[in-house]
Amino acid sequence: MEKVMPVYSRIFVIIFFLIAPGILRADTTANREEIMPSHEIRVSFNLENGSLSGVSKITIPKGCEASLDLSGLKASYIAINGRPLIIDQDMTELTCQPSSAIDTVEIRYEAVFRPTTAASREDNPGVAGGNMIGPDGIILMDNWYPAIKGPAVYHLTAKLPGEFEGISEADEVVVAGMPDGSREFSFLFAHPVRGINLIAGRYAVEKDSYNGIGIYTYFLPEDAGLAKPYIDNTKKYLEMYEKLLTAYPFKRFSVVENILPTGYSMPTFTLLGRDVVRLPFIVNTSLGHEILHQWFGNLVYVDYRGGNWSEGLTTYLSDNLYEEKKGSGWDYRKQQLISFQSYVSAEKDMPLTSFSGRSDPATRSIGYGKAAMVFHMLRDLAGEDAFYAGLRTLIKNNMFKEASWSDIRAAIEASSDRKFDWFFKQWLEEKGVPEIAIENLNLTYRGSRAVVSFDIVRKGGQYRLSVPITVRTKDGGTVKRFELEKESTAAEIETSGSPVELIVDENYDVFRKLSGAEFPPVISRLLGDPKKIFVLPADKETEYASLSSFLKELGFSEKKEAEVTFDDIRSTSFVMINTGSALTGRLFGSIEKQKDDFSVSVRENPYNNNAVIAVVDGSSPPEITKLARKITHYGKYGFISFADGRNSLKTIRESDRGIRKKITEETLGMELRSVSTASDIIGRIADVPVIYIGEFHDRLDNHRMQLEVIRSLHLKNKKIAIGMEMFQRPFQKALDDYIAGTIDEREFLRKSEYFKRWGFDFNLYREILLYAREFAIPVIALNIKKEIVTKVSKEGLYSLTAEELKEIPADMDLSDSEYKTRLREFFGKHKMSSERNFDFFYQSQVLWDESMAHSLYAFMKDRPDYQVVVLAGGGHMAFGSGIPKRAHRLNGKDYSILLNNFDIEKGVADYLLFPDAVRVNEAPKLMTVLKEDKGKVIISDFAADSVAEKAGLKKDDIILSLDNTPVETIDDIKIFLLYKKKGDAVIVKALRNRFLAGDSEMEFKMTL
């Protein structure tokens, strides 16, 4: 990065008007070399005291006003043209205008800059500056001499200890030995600069050359071995940029190691922190970036009044270009868009004309990332040849002068012979980011040609965009650019192949908002969220107090786990510690404990597509707290892990490349000659620990198929069990007693509350249960109480009481986004969806699935040698999303999924079965609508063509008995009817309230 000199606010000004009033200050942008001041500096040092003594002699030509910044200095002598001034110790600025051809100002001064332990800011590494003087070295970068505000020509002479090497801006360095053993370094640089720096220390210096350019390295002795790779790569970059741009502008280039964590480029050298230079990838990335600054920032200066363009340009022609050469430029640009979308909120956004330098991740994302994307779009718009020709013109016209975005525009317009005023206006002066969407996608055929038509919708501002769109076919693809000037643009792409997918901006050539599928859960999204919470683990608040303090510096608020509400989860990103807490478990299920000292896993927030949740793990609270400070360096990753203080793993979760829309799916087909029989399939799964057989509840053929599987497996393996969705866990004992033969079927139906809690005709499941009873096959009640699922569906998990929470699983994985999408589609088709909350519906479905998975896990944990056949609705099994993957998360057992009568879809199951339809002998019905009230069963209405109504029963009649079998509940009626068949005669006794005559018991005979 280019060094930006700080601005000081406390000013005391002395202006010497040694010429007649009315003479105007000369224009500093024209004839600059004729009117520019020159500044000769001589300094010496006392390392023990951390002090310097200096003498400055400034020569100011007529017509040039020179303002000198004295902040931080103690001046002992100031004279203009040999005439001493009275010194005010509060003086911080001296402004001079010469009366004759030349004025000379002499200043003698001292300053103290003792060593500090300054460290890189964790949230903005690489910008540490300041001054220090001590036995370990000298670093002078800010206000260490009377700085001229504006460009000047400097000549620095520094007296240094004999064992020190020094570096400053210089085309030539002359070193002379002194009688006292010290050495005097003279830095010769004939070009104007806006300030100079001095770095000195016990360096091991290596020298080489390229094309007449001296290449030097100044490394601390322990890092002297780095010299060769840095020199070799410097040659590579010099060769590359001389071909791309112009000849290197100076006579030497040096790589200097700094004991402070910096990353700066000054004319003729770069200053890199010692922690930075040791990183193996720096020679392939940051070194080239800093060398490129020799052209942009150090040869062509930045006119900051219109925005700092050099960081974006150097980022584009270094980091982006290096990845482009490897074929990964698209990925680099995508990362820039991810960073922008993560860190730049509406409140933090600014136009590029307002960017001067980075101060945090948001300003970096704007001034480096967005600006680099602007240069990429400009290159695409102007053409590559015109783009680089324009940059060479920019350099030629503005050497050692300030250049602005306007100068860049003028240079590119001249080289391309086109006008780009609209382009620069929208990308430099406006805030925000455009968004692109595809609507009304359609495929038609025109003879042998396929035509994909669609609407391109642009949101987020009045942008003119040039958007590449690809139609991928089975054997290739067609790319076409569309110019967007309206909110919606009708478009079409014609192709000879069979269209499969439409992809918008696959290579990230446009600065735009990423779609949800392109935006992976990464650390930068966590850090950039303006609303983020650190969830303090229960009973461990003290242990994590230091971590909480650090996270507060990054903008996190703090909440105890018990205080976190559903609204908090739904509206924020947050960090939680993996302590096996209820909150973690009810979002992502059980999370495996990491073995490393520290890890961060970032996941999508199941309730908010714009937010993320980071799960932190580690060996101990102190270790987590220590290593957590490193997360700001790993913003692009979704998972990081550290062992022994070093990064051991870093990954990014997969996300879409470009905005992708399916046009057609590959049609699945079967070769009927090789279709398997059910017996063949059962043979293949005979040894699988868990077998899921999905059903449509009201189809007897599905249940017969389930029975066939159970019978076949049982013949080979007596240790088999059956898990059934139809029964709820509180009624397991009723199931056990029935299978054991201690109660009969009527008692079982009554005690299991089958008809109240499931309701489908019992004859659908009767054969399976009779087989299980005959062979004492355990049957597992998989389901949770219906009342809890219903309550969650209406009011959400956080509405449950403490007692109800005890009945639900401690861990529930809500992170299956594909399952959530399918449920949302189903939910949207429901008539009452507009009146219900989808989040609550989703929670209830996951609770349903998780409860069954946990019931299965509990059984198999106690009886690990058993094979289990699970019977449930196909929706709980399709694609593995409902029960299977959740049970596998818990027990790790292999499984197979068989679905009855499902549509053929890729990945829907392991096997599909298509049994012939079988008519169920349903139990007869009274064709009445019944209600229960205080132990009475009352008729509230009749179905059409009701046999009960035909027999003479009326509304509000109370049914007392059927064939003298007492009736107290609706289940009593259903159990009675289960053992009847159509055509049977039944005597119904009922109590009727007769007006004035009171209650009267009546008897009715009906034919079912």
Helix proportion? 25-40%
Which spans of ≥5 residues are poorly predicted at pLDDT below 50?
Answer: 1-33, 118-128
- Helix count equals 28
How far the N terminus sits from the C terminus, by CA atoms, comes to 90 Å
Mean pLDDT across every amino acid position: 90
Number of domains: 7
Order of strands, widest sheet = 6-5-8-3-2-12-15-14
Report the sheet-strand fraction: 25-35%
C-alpha Rg, in Å? Answer: 40 Å
What's the story with the biggest beta sheet? Answer: 8 strands, mixed
Secondary structural class: alpha/beta
What is the C-level CATH assignment of the largest domain? Alpha Beta
Number of E-type strands? 49
| Overall geometry | elongated
CATH topology of the largest domain: Rossmann fold
CATH architecture of the largest domain: 3-Layer(aba) Sandwich
SSE order and pairing:
Layout: E1 13-17, H1 32-35, E2 38-46, E3 51-61, E4 66-69, E5 74-80, E6 83-84, E7 93-97, E8 102-112, E9 132-134, E10 137-140, E11 147-148, E12 153-160, E13 165-167, E14 172-177, E15 183-188, E16 198-201, E17 204-210, E18 213-219, H2 227-244, E19 252-258, E20 263-266, E21 269-273, H3 274-277, H4 286-292, E22 301-302, H5 310-325, H6 329-343, H7 361-382, H8 384-397, E23 402-403, H9 405-416, H10 421-428, E24 435-446, E25 449-459, E26 465-473, E27 476-484, E28 488-495, E29 499-504, H11 523-528, E30 532-536, H12 545-553, E31 557-560, H13 566-571, E32 573-577, H14 582-588, E33 598-605, E34 608-618, H15 621-628, E35 639-643, E36 646-651, E37 659-662, H16 678-684, E38 690-695, H17 700-716, E39 720-728, H18 732-740, H19 745-752, H20 754-757, H21 763-774, E40 779-783, H22 786-795, H23 802-805, H24 817-829, H25 838-862, E41 867-873, H26 884-891, E42 895-900, E43 911-913, E44 928-933, E45 936-942, H27 947-950, E46 958-962, E47 965-966, H28 970-978, E48 985-994, E49 998-1007
Helix pairs in contact: 2-4, 4-5, 5-6, 5-7, 6-7, 7-8, 8-9, 17-21, 18-19, 22-25, 25-26
